Amino acid sequence: MILLKNVIIVDAGSDLNGKKRDVLIKNGKIEKIALSITEESAKLIAHENMHVSIGWIDTSVSLGEPGFEERQTLENGIKAAAAGGFTHIMLNPNNQPNPQDQSGIKYLKNVTANQAVSILPVGSFSLNQKGEHLAELFDMQQAGAVSFYDYKQEVTNANLLKVGLQYTSAFNGVVQSFPQNKDIAGKGMVNEDIMSTNLGLKSMPNLAEELQIARDLRILTYTKGRLHIPTVSTVEGLKLIKKYKKTSDNVSCSVSIHHLALSSNELETFDTNFKLQPPLRDEKEVKQLQKYLNSSVIDVVTSDHTPLTIEHKDLEFDRATAGTIGLESLFGALNNLVDTSKTVELLTKGYSVFHQEVPLIEEGQLANLTLFEPETTYSFEKEHIVSTSKNSAFLGKMMKGKVIGIINNKKAIWNER
Question: How far is CA 234 from its chain centroid?
Fold first, then answer.
């Protein structure tokens, strides 16, 4: 039994939004919500300025296991997610082997069952992610896959995307398509701007993203399927999505926190933690992207968590692998950019985007909660990283707000850092 004392509820759809209450949780359910509750046998959780919302969901997380356990195991990934305030994470097919059939999805569901952090597997869109033939999409959804995605690989074959969207529309499946045209991107590894010129690094223009989004939206118009465009990083890309959303509701998108909080100016030191995919954009682009945070164009903000060992990062810039971890820093970085209620919205809308049951803060409901304090500021350092891999682009950056703990699946994890 857990008693949350004097907690401020953040739930825009509830009459309790913004109100301070006591919350009693018994056997994993919210038993009582009241102005004051006394229960001597309950574990008392009381912190100054403690807030509670429905559990947060990160829609783009990569872990090492299976296949690359040295980067991050599922067990460690769950600890990192909990430290970041997430009760649910969508696991990208970025492993070996990648799930592309029912057995692959069932394996991931079984080995992570009944944890405080729920793993939602994403299945491969095409067999071996080669973009030639569809994977077993229906069977994977029946086994628990929440979406289909050839991770960080554009669907070059336009007809395959067309067929995939048509096929998945029959069972309300969600297809993800990485927004990058590989022919335009070429061997570029950073954004095409003054910084890439100064550093002498191979660059890619914004056009690579915009062109792919325009094509995918045109195919979506024809098929009437359900498309999610992950990690959009350009204003023109968001403008295309905004225009499409005016007439249709079958598209959604995410933006990663590093594209909202960091710019290509970070590359001046050749620090490979800032080598990302898509690449960091210039400062002007970042400021324009931030303006979309309070619109309905950006559905979710993600960490795009990608653990990598020093063997992948402690190299010359052009040889290093792109990616940064972010589960532990997403909340603090996002809460710096928008108010707390909007932060919570952007960290919870993923449930509805990917057709998952939206939790409720009501008596009788299973407790799926994130507890946090939204005002404390601090510098993000290695001591705040739970992940095995330490390749964070946010080291030394100021954060706003700290996670106190999570409650989910009749389990609780408290952040002692």
Answer: 18
